[in-house]
Inverse folding.
């Protein structure tokens, strides 16, 4: 059994700021406040998909971020919510807090979708702050920041095939050409120090997992 892992920083979107705006109409002098609220920041979800077999899609990706909420506008118009993102992982993935080592999520069932980070709340527009003593408030709230969390994804995998051979014979080269794995390849022995997994697609629906194993003397 091999443990495939990837570290990634996830951030939800910031809330959009509320607007400071005053009603402007013909024949209305000094209209009242009408600044709308900022939109909520986008959320971060985990989605379990059995069509992704390994965590290789996270290689080289260090940060995934949902979109920020849009600012509020005049005429009490609220800003648009920031777009959420789905982090797609294979069944069996554990989400581990990098700082504490705690397992935050154990994602098992195909199709399961769970909210992981909540987007920041949008700020209130100045319209909310009118009162009998202040009929023209210039204050509107800023949006709240999103959440940021660095997690390690871990997947315990059973490879279908393992490449066994003496060092420097081209095992990594083979797996790099037939699978989605991109291991280091070099003309010296013991280039590969830890096993790397790759998915070999045989057709649109069938695939198997191949392991690149360090050279054995
Ligand atoms: N001539 C020739 N060279 C190859 C072939 N396949 C790989 N090589 C070269 O052989 C060297 C070693 O390749 P790797 O794929 O890193 O070998 P490895 O078995 O993974 O080596 P370790 O990880 O050190 O055990 C590289 O310089 C490759 O370019 C081949 O079919 N023919
Ligand atoms: Mg190698």
């Amino acid at each position: 059994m091999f443990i495939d892992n990837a570290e990634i920083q996830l951030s939800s979107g910031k809330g959009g700021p509320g607007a400071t705006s005053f009603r402007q109409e013909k024949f209305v002098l000094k209209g009242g406040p009408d600044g709308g609220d900022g939109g909520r920041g986008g959320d971060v979800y985990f989605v379990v998909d059995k069509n992704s077999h390994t965590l290789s899609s996270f290689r080289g990706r260090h940060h995934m971020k949902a979109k920020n909420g849009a600012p509020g506008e005049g005429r009490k118009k609220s800003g648009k919510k920031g777009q959420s993102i789905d982090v797609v992982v294979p069944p069996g993935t554990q989400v581990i807090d990098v700082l504490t080592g705690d397992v935050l999520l154990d994602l098992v069932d195909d199709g399961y979708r769970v909210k992981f980070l909540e987007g920041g709340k949008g700020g209130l527009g100045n319209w909310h702050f009118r009162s009998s003593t202040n009929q023209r408030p210039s204050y509107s709230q800023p949006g709240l920041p999103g959440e940021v969390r660095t997690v390690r994804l871990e997947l315990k995998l059973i490879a279908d095939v393992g490449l066994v051979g003496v060092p420097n014979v081209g095992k990594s080269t083979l797996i790099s050409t037939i699978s989605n794995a991109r291991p280091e390849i070099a003309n010296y022995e013991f280039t590969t120090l830890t096993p790397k997994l790759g998915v070999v697609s045989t057709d649109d629906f069938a695939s198997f997992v191949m392991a690149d194993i360090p050279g054995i003397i």
In short: The first strand starts at residue 2 and ends at 11. Helices lie at 171-178.
